[in-house]
Amino acid sequence: MSVQPAHHPDQQPRVPRTPDGIAEALTGARRMAFYRELGQAPIDQAEQVLNRWWCEAEMDADPEQGRIIAAARAGTLPTVTMAEIIRLRRERGGELLGE
């Protein structure tokens, strides 16, 4: 399995991690779907809804989105392994889940 980071660690997220920030980054039907899902979520699941939609909003707000999608479809998108991500996080002093 390989992954592509949404943004580099030294960059600030494009989308504020708030309900209004997420909604602002989404458009039309996606914004309404976000509000509907958040409004119907039990309180103990609201954070999960916000996290999922924040990821969606970050991708939607990426100015490179078209290029990234085209590269992924063409099989030319650069990727790294999870082992490499873990190694880099440890080198930079980042915490890993479960540690």
Overall pLDDT: 86
Q: Count the E strands.
A: 2
**What does the radius of gyration come to?**
16 Å
Share of residues in strands: under 5%
* Structural category: mainly alpha
Helix percent reads: 55-70%
Number of H- or I-type helical stretches: 5
Indicate the low-confidence ranges by residue numbers. none
Q: Sheet with the most strands?
A: 2 strands, antiparallel
Description:
- This protein has one domain.
- By secondary structure, the protein is mainly alpha-helical.
- 56% of the residues lie in helices and 4% in strands.
- Helix 1 runs antiparallel to helix 2.
- A two-stranded antiparallel ribbon has the order 1-2.
- The longest helix is centred in the middle third of the chain and has 15 residues, at 46-60.
- The model has no long low-confidence stretch (mean pLDDT 86).
- The protein has five helices and two strands; from the N terminus they run βααααβα.
- 8% of the residues are buried.
